[in-house]
Amino acid sequence: MRAINDMNLPKFIQEDIFLFNALFNDLFPNTDLPESENAKLYEAIENELKNEKLIPKPEMINKAI
Predict the structure, then answer these.
(1) Could you report the per-residue pLDDT of 9-44, keeping only the tens digit for each?
(2) Same domain for 14 and 26?
(3) E strand map for the chain
(4) What's the CA gap between 26 and 50, in Å, rounded?
């Protein structure tokens, strides 16, 4: 479930995310998606963006992951 979500969600435009989540919940009812275990990777990407004088936005970091 995590792979399906992580591989598809970044490809959608904002308006389609609601539809994707609705379909996902229909396919996997009453199931909580486990949290991602990318805390160290997230932090490393955030630090590199700061080193390059860029603004580390969560959306950008999540898409990179």
Answers:
(1) 888 998 999 999 899 889 888 888 777 778 899 999
(2) yes
(3) none
(4) 39
Q: Is 54 helix (H, G, I), strand (E, B) or coil?
A: coil
Owning domain of residue 27: 1-33
Q: What is the pTM assigned to this prediction?
A: 0.53
Per the CB < 8 A criterion, the answer to whether 56 and 46 are in contact is yes
Q: Residue 13 in 3-state DSSP?
A: coil
What are the backbone dihedrals phi and psi of residue 36, each rounded to the nearest 5 degrees, phi first?
-70, 145
The rounded radius of gyration (Å) of the Cα atoms in the chain is 14
Task: Note whether 27 and 43 are same-domain residues.
Answer: no
How far is the C-alpha of 28 from the C-alpha of 22, rounded, in Å?
10
How many structural domains does the chain have?
A: 2
Q: How many angstroms separate the Cα of 28 from the Cα of each of 5, 15, 19, 25, 40?
A: 12, 21, 14, 5, 28
